[in-house]
Amino acid sequence: MQRRQFLISMTSLAALTAAGPIRAESFEVTLTDAEWRARLTPAQYAVLRQENTERAGSSPLNTEHRAGLFSCAGCALPVYRSEDKFESGTGWPSFTQPIKGAVGTKPDNTLFTTRTEVHCRRCGGHLGHVFNDGPQPTGKRYCMNGVALTFAAA
User: Which ranges of the chain have pLDDT less than 70?
Assistant: First the structure.
């Protein structure tokens, strides 16, 4: 093996190791790619299935202040309560905590940093990220893509 090939191989191995183990999760709601595309709008598909991020300030849910539930746009599982929503000033709907058992998390090593990605525990749809700079009582900021959520007033 030439030195160059060896170095490339070692660099690739290091990158994979740094990213952590690759986990295969199973979810209650599993659809084919074609079924997801038929069910979701293009913007919802880009966020929920491809882990994209909507443009800051673009969601009507930023200004939603009524009592009710925010659910996953992919499978309709309630994931956040309106009483846990707060104005973070980030341009995305933000919450102090999810409904117990509604979301899962995993490391996200994109953008040259490690963040914590939040996804729907039932369908695996990407919802957003959680940060440790939120208000009390949790100190968490669940910063969600509005297009990944639906809202139903109570």
Answer: 1-24
CA distances from 18 to 11, 13, 89, 109 (A): 11, 9, 32, 9
**pLDDT for the residue 26:** 86
- The two tokens of residue 19 are 């990213």
Assigned domain for 20 exists: no
- C-alpha distances in Å from residue 142, one per residue of 6, 26, 39: 42, 23, 25
Residue 124, pLDDT score: 97
**Residue tagged active-site, from 72, 75, 123, 143:** 143
Number of domains in the chain: 1
For residue 24, the model assigns a pLDDT of 54
Per-residue model confidence (pLDDT) at position 21: 34
Give me the pLDDT at residue 4, please.
Answer: 47
143 carries an active-site annotation: yes
Residue among 125, 130, 48 nearest 90 (CA): 130
Report the alpha-carbon distance of residue 92 to residue 135 in Å, rounded. 15
Task: Put the strands of the sheet holding 78-81 in their side by side order.
Answer: 78-81, 68-72, 149-153
Domain enclosing residue 91, as ranges: 29-153
